[in-house]
Amino acid sequence: MNTADNDIKSAIETLKLTDKVIFAHCAMRSFGRLEGGANRLLELFLSAGCTVVVPTFTYFPMCHSPEGIEYAQNGYRGELEIDPSPYDADANDIEPSMGAFAKAVLNHPNRIRTEHPMNSYSAVGPLAEAVLATQDDFNVYGVYQSTEAQNAVVLSMGVTPNSITPIHYAEQLAGKSLFRRWALTAHRGVVETCVGSCSEGFIHLQPYLSTIQSEKRVGESIWTAYPLEALLEVCAQAFRTNPSITRCSDYCPRCEDMALGGVRI
């Protein structure tokens, strides 16, 4: 099945995305066939005045602490296999699992990318610089805290809640402490950073999310829009009520440690 420009334009209008900051999570394969692919999808958002923000994570820079620091409840049991390459925000390195749409944003000539060496975000649009300015190595989810993000929309395009990154910030809002990792950078040497936990169990939050979502079929893809502030509120409350609600298995150290409250410094 083909997805036409008019299908996308109609969804942007129906879901009230025009001129909004959009935290986008996208599986391009969900569309069927879209002429122009991810680049055309991005063009249509930008032509509607949207500011498009995507996670552009990369794990290649991860390295061991230069001081040999080990924190308790830090989401791993010594199993990290590390051969780091330095992070450079001017480069376009990206974890392949981020998907074709995130890669399209990252490769856009006007994109801005943050300096976080493992959990960078990239954005294009009129508010890109302002939204991204609040992230740093320790405030990894600062992009959800800017004034410009207050009326933002989290948009899921053909993906499940397991791919919705701001849920990690909801864990932090619920009182959990983010994990620490170290990363090699091209210009700052080795830096300590905060990162999120496992997202494989975020699907268990679907009953909470269904109360605040709006849906629209776009070709073969299902688009689901959530007001950012409402998403953070319902997910944080779910974590407060049941700290283990998103635990993916009994064998995941990240889920185990985050259920206990996260890292202990």
TrEMBL record:
Pfam family, one: Antibiotic_NAT
Keyword Transferase found: yes
InterPro entries according to UniProt: Amioglycoside_AcTrfase, Antibiotic_NAT-like
Catalytically driven reaction(s): a 2-deoxystreptamine antibiotic + acetyl-CoA = an N(3)-acetyl-2-deoxystreptamine antibiotic + CoA + H(+)
EC number: 2.3.1.-
Keywords assigned: Acyltransferase, Antibiotic resistance, Transferase
A GO BP annotation: response to antibiotic
Protein name per the record: Aminoglycoside N(3)-acetyltransferase
Organism name: Grimontia marina
